[in-house]
Design goal:
- By secondary structure, the protein is of the alpha/beta class.
- Helix content is 31%, strand content 27%.
- Strand 1, helix 1 and strand 2 (28-33) form a beta-alpha-beta unit.
- Helix 1 packs across helix 5 and helix 3 (84-90) packs across helix 4 (92-99).
- The protein is globular and about 50 Å long.
- The model has no long low-confidence stretch (mean pLDDT 94).
Length: 188
């Protein structure tokens, strides 16, 4: 019987670790490594995740997984996009709601790029996306990040209003499930 698959997931976000474990375990063990690292500036989350994964795999001499995600708001030319975590720290959800005041088109998408890389190899990336709308105001205390202002398609509630929203969020799940499929096929 093959040894249990393990990934080294590098993030400082414990909520992402929880989501990865929910999706991957028990088939693939998630080993969390908290290391800070410089991120490429790009509008493309896949480009950021791939470059970060390659740099970290070579630096740590380990196979690693990195995730980069963001909220892309159509009316704001996809802002905050790949700068979502930074903008969240600076202006928070209140700041985004203020930027959207009076804006009719509230379409947005949550995007998640997951990259897998072995030392001295080229990274593989997997993109998950979920469309939705920016709420008129902050609603709910569940989830994390932009969940209290993101209303997924075919819903009237923000993820922040939905208990255990991690169970139904699609954007990160879609990317992580592609990674899971890739790793399980690679093992066989």
């Amino acid at each position: 019987m093959p040894s249990k698959l393990t990934i080294n997931f590098i993030t400082s976000n414990k909520n992402k670790v929880k989501e990865f474990k929910q999706i991957l375990e028990p088939e693939i063990k998630v080993n969390h490594i908290k290391v800070s690292y410089p991120e490429l500036r790009s509008d493309n989350p896949e480009e950021i995740a791939k470059q970060s994964a390659e740099m970290l795999a070579n630096k740590l001499k380990k196979t690693v997984v990195v995730e980069d995600s963001g909220l892309f708001i159509k009316a704001l030319n996809d802002f905050p996009g790949t700068c979502s975590a930074y903008i969240h720290k600076r202006i928070g959800l209140k700041g985004i709601i203020k930027l959207m005041k009076g804006v009719q088109n509230r379409q947005c998408a949550y995007k998640s790029a997951v990259a897998y890389c072995e030392p001295n190899k080229k990274p593989q990336s997997f993109l998950g996306e979920e469309k939705g709308a920016v709420a008129e105001k902050i609603k709910g205390n569940f989830g994390f990040g932009h969940d209290p202002i993101f209303i997924p398609e075919r819903s009237t509630k923000t993820y922040g209003e939905i208990k255990n929203c991690e169970d139904i969020k699609k954007f990160r799940r879609r990317a992580v499930e592609q990674l899971k499929k890739y790793l399980l096929e690679k093992q066989n």
